[in-house]
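Pilot study result, target chain (245 residues):
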Amino acid sequence: MTPNFFTDQSPFLNHPLLTPERTSAEVDFVLSHAKDGPFLDVGCGFGRHSLELAKRGHDVVGIDPAEAMIAAANERKRELPKNKQDRATFVVSSGENFQTDHKFGTAICLMTTFGQVSASGPNNGLLTAIQQNLKPGGKLILELPQKQTMIDTLKSSDRFGTDTHYTDITRKFDPDTECIVETFKLVSPESTRHFLLSYKLYNQAELETELTSAGFSLVAMFGNYSSAPLTESSMNMLAVAEANG
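Predicted structure:
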């Protein structure tokens, strides 16, 4: 069985596109549309957004169901100035199952976290769980690919790396499940490893329905982290929503 993308030695931990500059720009967007703290980072991965928020003086809890990701986040937290390290807390938990008496002012759920498909199926209850962990009027900032644009521009394969150390990526769209399935093959002289990532696609109307059903009111939709308007050609949808009180 192919391991999940977010297990130990995942290519996500050293993804060439997840640069510090990209992270900084994404957090700029978050802070420009956030209500207040503390922040909940759902599907935090190795903590790049959480750590940037903590670096800027905000309190944040990052949650992720993958132990390998939380271990990496805690390791990277050591790189923060000592007076900022306590601002970031990382917890092994799926977004659907995370419960706390502590309510958050803003939740972020970025990249393909919403819609991911695991061995237990799609995370349909994620938005409702996030809403329950927010203060009344708290903000949710949600990013996911735009369905039709993603389908129309899908690259069936990619390669990153060198001649001896590289990652091959294959992608396909399943019209029955409306999911993208990505397979990653990591090749080095020492080994060849495979990882799998699957996530469901949504269009704007479907996303708005999901948000309303989960107890959110949509505030705004954007097409990128520069706050450009969402158009039919936008690769991603960035939704800013407010938790109903």
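One observation from the pilot: The mean pLDDT is 89. A full batch analysis is planned for the follow-on phase.
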